[in-house]
């Protein structure tokens, strides 16, 4: 199963693992093979395997125990046919973050060249709203969304604005919630605020290349948090993701 063929990659892996579970290859209580091994088996990145694990947890097939592994849950009392398995029909965190890096990096560069003073002030105000809400997840997320939406608006392209809005809408849903529940912390929110201030400074100084790099770096941080989740007890941190 080469990466990038057919339906979303993580869905292919999730379906194959459900087939393993239903066939008895992996029984209730068993720990699934390490993600490194699964990545080799399916010829995909470990990030894609990680998305598949989130999908299987969401559908009630496995339990993720961070640092211990991924364990098979007891089957549905009514039984299950692998052919009827329906993985979540959404884009996974890895693909969405990859698209955000590309598109939001460009919107930041364009905003640095085009934003007027009032929009720059509004972007700065969104950061201050985030700082005041560092202990309130809902308020923090609202201000964070406003920050990125304002930059997209400042880029001066309705199409870019639509792209960013759609990408942020893809962050909604139970699969994302499960990932965020494992990575959210006050420390991470404070880091995010600091990274937003770097982006804002580049915008105010009219430095498109610096703004693009700062935005890409910010999204790289989010990606690294996803990759840093250690699902396996014997995880070798030196192994490429």
Q: Could you describe the 3D structure shown?
A:
This protein has 241 residues and is mainly α. It folds into 2 domains: 9-84, Arc Repressor Mutant, subunit A (Orthogonal Bundle); 93-228, Up-down Bundle (Four Helix Bundle (Hemerythrin (Met), subunit A)), CATH 1.20.120. Helix content is 64%, strand content 3%. The protein contains 10 helices and 2 strands. It has helices spanning 9-23, 35-42, 46-58, 93-114, 117-132, 137-154, 158-169, 174-183, 186-204, 208-228; strands spanning 62-65, 69-72. Strands 1-2 form a two-stranded antiparallel sheet. Helix 4 crosses helix 6 and helix 4 packs antiparallel against helix 10 (208-228). The radius of gyration is 20 Å and the shape is elongated. The two termini are 17 Å apart. The model is unreliable at 2-7 and 237-241 (pLDDT under 50).
Write the layout of secondary structure elements.
Layout: H1 9-23, H2 35-42, H3 46-58, E1 62-65, E2 69-72, H4 93-114, H5 117-132, H6 137-154, H7 158-169, H8 174-183, H9 186-204, H10 208-228
Antiparallel strand pairs: 1-2
Helix pairs in contact: 1-3, 2-3, 4-6, 4-7, 4-9, 4-10, 5-6, 5-9, 6-7, 9-10
Poorly predicted residue ranges: 2-7, 237-241
The main β sheet shows up as: 2 strands, antiparallel
- What form results from the Cα inertia axes? elongated
Corresponding CATH architecture of the largest domain: Up-down Bundle
Tell me the name of the CATH homologous superfamily of the largest domain: GntR ligand-binding domain-like
């Amino acid at each position: 199963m080469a990466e990038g063929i057919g339906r979303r990659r993580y869905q292919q892996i999730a379906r194959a693992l459900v087939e393993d579970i239903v066939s008895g290859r992996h029984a209730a209580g068993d720990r699934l093979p390490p993600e490194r091994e699964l990545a080799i088996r399916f010829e995909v990145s470990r990030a894609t395997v990680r998305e598949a694990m989130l999908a299987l947890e969401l559908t009630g097939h496995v339990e993720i125990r961070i640092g211990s592994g991924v364990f098979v849950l007891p089957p549905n009392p009514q039984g299950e046919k692998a052919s009827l398995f329906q993985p979540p029909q959404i884009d996974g965190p890895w693909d969405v973050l990859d698209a955000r890096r590309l598109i939001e990096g460009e919107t930041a560069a364009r905003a640095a060249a085009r934003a007027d003073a009032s929009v720059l002030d509004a972007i700065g105000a969104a950061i201050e709203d985030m700082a005041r809400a560092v202990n309130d997840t809902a308020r923090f997320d609202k201000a964070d969304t406003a920050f990125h939406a304002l930059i997209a608006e400042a880029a001066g392209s309705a199409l870019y604005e639509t792209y960013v809005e759609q990408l942020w809408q893809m962050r909604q849903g139970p699969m994302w919630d499960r990932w965020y529940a494992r990575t959210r912390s006050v420390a991470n929110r404070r880091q995010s605020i600091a990274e937003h201030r770097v982006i804002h400074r580049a915008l105010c100084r009219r430095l498109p290349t610096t703004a693009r790099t700062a935005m890409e770096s910010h999204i790289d941080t989010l990606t690294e948090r996803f990759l840093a989740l250690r699902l396996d007890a014997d995880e070798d941190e030196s192994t490429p993701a």
